[in-house]
Amino acid sequence: MARKNYQYRSGGLLLTAVVALLAFGAAVDVVLIPLNLWEVSIYERAESPDVAQDFALQADADSMSVAVGAAAILAVLIFLVTAICFLCLTYRAGANAHTLAPRVQYAAGWAVGWYFVPFLNLVRPYQAMAEYFRASRPRSEGGVPEHWQDNRVPGLLRVWWGLWLLGGVLGQVSARMAMQEPGVGDFSMAKTACYLSIGESLIGVASAATAIWMFRTLFHWQSERRQEKRSEPDVGEGRDLAATCRECGEALPVGADEPVADPDRCPMCGAEHPARRDEALV
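^ thats the sequence. predicted structure below, dont judge the formating
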């Protein structure tokens, strides 16, 4: 199968939009925390022996339901818009990585598609992003483009993925618990769901912060690596710079996918090798 012809594109407005949406989503998560605590207080009042004398309980419960419901709907809408932009930016980051390093394994399209494949979505999106970080790491950040597969991945990338997985688990568990019908005068399950939702909100804030760092860092690295690549000799696709040409001083490619067309000329600059030239003059 032919390799897709990727084009480099900066983060631009898409990166700005994703950062803003992630920050807004984190702000909604912060708002949900006191609302969940308010919900817990309503349940505790409902469990109180003096609930019959709490004439304001029903009105407060109705107000709480409206506030929590509105915030939850807003959170879902923000999540959907953020997810679309997030995946578009992930594709762009993957496409850029393919233009900066040879033999990148994970296609940009699959970096998005893995999120929708059961079970594999637990590992593949992280692996793709880790590979893009390795391929994009510039020399100024300690990267070795000639052997980019050995470049280190920032530890915070693992933190982002761990938070993403943990937040998803807490969200699923709290949602299922919240749908359980409470017993008469027993709201312990509903209160536990609220506490789990608070944990999910806290993790959501941290996850958004690490995701903002991830994209900003990756696109910064890609911009730096692209500038470096422009100043390097063009050795062609699939070649790594390992040494310099002993005849003309130019870099020598190794590990090429196809042999050099003219062995009598430098594969870098095309100049005739001095040794061969001298032999021709004798």
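Residues 12-230 form one domain.
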